[in-house]
Amino acid sequence: MPEDAAYDYVIAGGGSAGSVLAGRLSEDPSVRVLLLEAGRSDRHPLIHVPAGFPRLKNGPYQWDYASVPQAHSNGRRIPLAQGRVLGGGGSINSQVFTRGVAEDYDSWVSDFGCEGWSADEVNRYFVRSESNSRLSAPHHGTQGPLGVSDLLRPHQLSAAFVKAGQEYGLPYNSDFNGAEQYGVGFYQTTTKNGRRCSAAVAYLKPARNRPNLTVRANVTVSRVVIRNGRAVGIHAIEGGSPRTYSANREVIVSAGAFGSPKLLQLSGIGDPEDLAAAGIDTVHALPGVGKNLHDHCDVDIVYELRDYHSMDRFNQVRPATVLAGVEYLAFRSGPFASTLVEAGGFSYANQDEKTPDLQFHFLPAARAGTGAEALKPGFGATLNSYFLRPRSRGTVRPASSDPDRAPLIDPNYLADDYDIEMAIAGVQQSRQIMEQSSMAELVKAEHIGDGTRVQTRDEYVKFVRAFGRTSYHPVGTCAMGTSDDSVVSPRLKVHGIEGLRVVDSSIMPRLVSANTQAPTIMIAEKAVDMILAEAN
User: Which domains are present in the chain?
Assistant: First the structure.
């Protein structure tokens, strides 16, 4: 097939959603599919080692994004790592598998007119995607591509945290994706046989030898080609040379909550004021593009331990690290089979809510950038929390017409006072959990913020504004809906343009009450059915 040949479907973005789309659509041998990914392949061995992800978040496998100065977070430019690799965030994340609550999806229907996206209707796609090692119907699948499993051997610190959560008053929960989200327990993760199971592994790898699927990495997509109101292809730069790839049926944008609005804007689709400010001519006015950005604002507390037994001790080459490496290579078990974010839970900040509005992640290690550098290796643990339903909204705007320029990303964290109050409640509950006997006997000292006192409300406000960060869950910038400020229809078609869809986390009109990888995979699974139904 010549390099600039026509395909049936051209997919811009090889992250979680793009990998699902390419794998599923190419199951039909009569359909030609092209997947374009800006980043590298996922061959790096650390990608596939569950505990390897912290070494990848500051390297070439992620977009080096940062926010604009945050008006409500002390003017900080907050790093916003996103996967730049086949598999996207699913190739470099901590593999936590949560889906949210039924009310999240039902509200997409009731509040935004997204017919077909109720909890009952999307559950089949969660089930279809999943191969769960322990759980089954009605909430889980056992035959899908995405491996989901329990920790083989939870760290003793994680087990202590789960006990402490129960001592605080949270019920033990063995399935955060089942009938009830509330409680504390161990997370299931997107791992299989001791290895990471990203969407690239689950969906793309089995499809790579199909003659009707072409996957190209290290390709910069510069814009969608629009003719007479229809998307007909993609302009890209590959190896320094321009390329044009035609799409006979559809162009599908799957570049994530930052990349998808950026690509639409580079193509002249967006708010005319935003486009004009970047020197881009308006092809199709769609003011909602890049609006409605929101994310969970995460707050960390680091704890210094009395004894030398956290995962930090494996950050240096020493006999214990070598032995752990040998154990992993031989048996796919041991410390390197840990996803680090092993335990957590869901609680209430506002008792009037119908479902939990706080989430916790516990790490048997000291998270970098939180004062952990002052701790001795092996003597740290981290508990973070975030409010699940933020009210603050931000934007993604183009910086220029240059596709190599990062967009102007303003999550607008903590702009709403309610978010501040809920974040404070999360920090307070975190501290209370860690004060319970099962954890207190292991903890030498709490390290919160810069070491200054955090007791009064004003001190809590200062702490949250000074140290709140991304939880890597940005959504909403190409929001699905039927109103004038939405970007795509409930069938994920870009309003006013034929042959163009957006399929990724950016289409969520409202953030789910959980991590976002599993819902993104669900979105792509459902999109495949919609695409195929219209093609036949």
Answer: 1-149+196-294+394-413+474-536 (3.50.50.60), 152-186+297-387+415-467 (3.30.410.40)
